[in-house]
What we know:
The structure is a single chain. By secondary structure, the chain is mostly helical. It has 11 helices and 3 strands. The chain has a 3-stranded mixed sheet with strand order 2-1-3. It is globular and about 65 Å long.
Amino acid sequence: MGRENQSHLSEFLLLGLPIRPEQQGVFFALFLGMYLTTVLGNLLILLVIRLDPHLHTPMYFFLSHLAFTDITFSSVTTPKMLMNMQTQSQSISYAGCISQVYFFLMLGCLNSFLLTSMAYDRYVAICHPLHYITIMSQSLCFLLVIVSWILSSVSAILHTLLLARLSFCGDNLLPHFFCDLDTLLKLSTSDTTVNELFILTVGVVVITLPFACILVSYGCIGATILRVPSTKGLYKALSTCGSHLSVVVLYYGTIIGLYFFPSSNYSNDKDVIVAILYTLITPMLNPFIYSLRNKDMKGALGNILSRGTFS
């Protein structure tokens, strides 16, 4: 068989979630509800930030981009998963699979960079409050977002190009509900050494370094709070950082659980379940975290609702 016939399968078969057939209907309704909550909740955040002038600050500028990223990140995998559960069709085209890998990686990296930008914003606000307006200028905020998009896109493109050069022949069954890069590499019949080295290298840049920056930022914030021990200062720090820190724990906690404690080659169920956490549950929880733990968001939402009621 020629290399052309080996290199490109016309489609892959997604085996989906490890649930019994009689439970498909219940889980379909559950995941559909979670996906709609994710989309509507993050759209609400975007709307509130857009309509309330008091939220036109660097922190909420980053939050609006994070909300948009959560919507698109969840939309990369969830609609296809729901469609497969409803129609019992497991197929995804080769081109569709490669595209899914690109957008999944790009938006996942973007999420990491945005969380880092938000941590830096909180660091400046608490550790250098007198210089906050000067440091966190509009141009710097735009630059941080643009650089985040560029780095995320470049890393995802390189991952995708390296994946596209691999050969796939014979088995086309993916034990996952979406085209996961690691699962595809295990399925390939080519040498994946370069891909794995690139994953480690890029992982340091887009996951480890941002996470380290977040830890350093909150370490400095903690040290600043301890130097000025007051109930008012502690409450202010918790109110401004609590929401972001909760999202950081959710996002990086699932990634650490998946990649630092990998499952065996013979059992992929844990990886699939953890993937549900960071592709669907975490984006769904973010709007609740920022709405319930953030005084400014609750106040802005109340003002908008009251204006709508009186009008």
